[in-house]
Automatic annotation (TrEMBL):
Source taxon at top rank: Bacteria
Chain ranges of the Surface lipoprotein assembly modifier C-terminal domain: 229-445
Xref: SUPFAM superfamilies: TPR-like
Protein name, per record: DUF560 domain-containing protein
Length: 451
């Protein structure tokens, strides 16, 4: 184990590594690299052999993967006119229309396929699933509910510093002295329960418009460490979502919202957070999209026996986030995001601001007509600067925190609406205040049910 005197890894080295990883994912092909266009090759092969549905299907899949749903739909409709008995092509059209936001057309194609007396059993099963999704998508009011339960192991469940001593201001000496840490990091198991609900109500506008409401509950109960570490969270946000511009190459969607959250530790209120914000999403051609979110809220923190100074954190805060999303294919998506946080507080040593960045990738692998394996990974960093020194810890310098996070997730289907989940999480916080310097590794095995 490294000693307290060893130098911490510099932010510069980690930032360069993070930037290199981001560039590796998002950089375009090198100048002069031979440019291959499989979509043009597939189009040429399809036009040369108009009676071959497999060639049309290949072109449609490539076109859909590049965000050109209209070209994909046109190619498959042409094949269906030549051979109306191809129920698998009808299902591909149903899937494309569903992804393009036309559930009525998707349901019609799926219904036509099911009406065929010669439809194979595996194709019929997929048709029933697509028709159910399409009919649900066409409904004016929809509700999605997810339930989660799992066992989690944390290597440092109480997030205690690994340093054997930390610098603390001693009033009698009027100086900072090294004080042995009284609390050591402890590993522990916990039971994690969660639930989330998403409700969408179609407003019936000429442009796409809906009223979206999201709610979530989270509960974590540890086995051995003090009850004050048990975490409870409840969140709610609601607001309209509507298109303000919709063209052939781009679509702009806005969603103003109000939000409220409650966070508790050990069954006692830690904070109420309430406010509102605005999300703007710009969907571009070629599978790119940009999302900007501004959130302004007020945090009302309450003291407790376990956290007697929490009320000092009370104040207004705002968070701005910009995200860039890219679909490598219909199964794989990547995203990069930057954020800025600015929070006021009753005491200046809790007022804080800073930047963050994150990179994520997710993918699904279909293993049958109704089941798919999901994977995801993420990496992030956040730096916070506090406005003034904390007189109870070190009146000579303000606090500076840098937090690195990474994680990975695997979802294994058991049934169409039930899956096993395996999650790994790591984070490390470096700080010039030793109390706030800690790290943790966590693994969770759980089950997720979709209702």
């Amino acid at each position: 184990m490294p000693s307290a005197q060893q130098a911490e890894p510099s932010l510069g080295v980690k930032s360069v590594a993070f930037a290199a990883l981001l560039c590796l994912y998002l950089a375009p092909p090198a100048f002069g690299q031979a440019a291959l266009d499989p979509m043009q090759d597939a189009f040429a092969a399809m036009m040369a052999n108009p009676g071959q549905p497999d060639l049309a299907l290949r072109y449609a899949q490539l076109a859909a993967a590049q965000g050109d749903a209209r070209a994909a739909i046109a190619a498959l409709e042409r094949v269906l006119r030549i051979n109306p008995s191809l129920d698998n092509i009808r299902l591909e059209l149903a899937s494309l229309h569903l992804a393009a936001g036309s559930p009525d057309l998707a349901a019609a194609y799926a219904r036509e396929a099911l009406s065929s007396p010669n439809i194979p059993p595996d194709v019929a099963q997929r048709a029933r699933l697509l028709m159910a999704r399409a009919e649900r998508g066409a409904a004016r009011s929809t509700l999605d509910v997810r339930l989660n339960a799992g066992l989690r192991y944390d290597s440092n469940a109480n997030e205690a510093t690994a340093l054997r001593s930390v610098p603390v201001f001693v009033p009698v000496l009027q100086d900072v002295a090294a004080v042995p840490t009284a609390v050591r990091g402890r590993s522990d198991w916990s039971l994690v329960l969660g639930a989330s609900a998403e409700h969408r109500y179609d407003l019936g506008l000429q442009r796409n418009g809906s009223w979206d409401t999201n709610a979530a509950l989270y509960e974590q109960r540890f086995a051995r460490i003090p009850r004050g570490y048990d975490l409870s969270i409840a969140t709610l946000d609601t607001g309209p979502r509507f298109d303000v511009a919709d063209g052939d190459s781009a679509r702009l969607t806005l969603r103003p919202f109000v939000t409220a959250s409650w966070i508790g530790y050990g069954g006692e209120t830690y904070t109420w957070l309430y406010g509102g914000g605005l999300t703007a999403q710009l969907a571009l051609a070629r599978n790119w999209s940009v999302e900007l979110t501004w959130l302004g809220r007020f945090g009302n923190y309450e003291n407790s026996n376990f956290r007697p100074r929490a009320r000092e954190i009370t104040g207004a805060e705002q968070i701005m986030t910009a995200g860039l999303f890219y679909a490598l294919s219909s199964q794989t998506r990547m995203s990069a995001a930057v954020s800025y946080t600015d929070a006021d507080a009753r005491e200046p040593w809790w007022a804080r601001s800073g930047l963050g960045a994150a990179l994520a990738v997710s993918s699904v692998l279909p293993i049958s007509t109704s089941l798919e394996v999901g994977t995801s990974a993420r990496l992030g960093v956040r730096r916070l600067r506090f406005d003034a020194p904390d007189p109870f810890i070190d009146p000579t310098q303000s606090r500076r925190d840098t937090r690195w996070e990474a994680g990975a997730s695997l979802q294994l289907p058991v049934a169409p609406s039930v899956m096993l989940t395996l999650d790994y999480e790591w984070y490390e916080q470096n700080s010039n205040y030793g109390f706030y310097e800690y790290g943790n590794h966590a693994v969770m095995l759980g089950v997720r049910v979709l209702l």
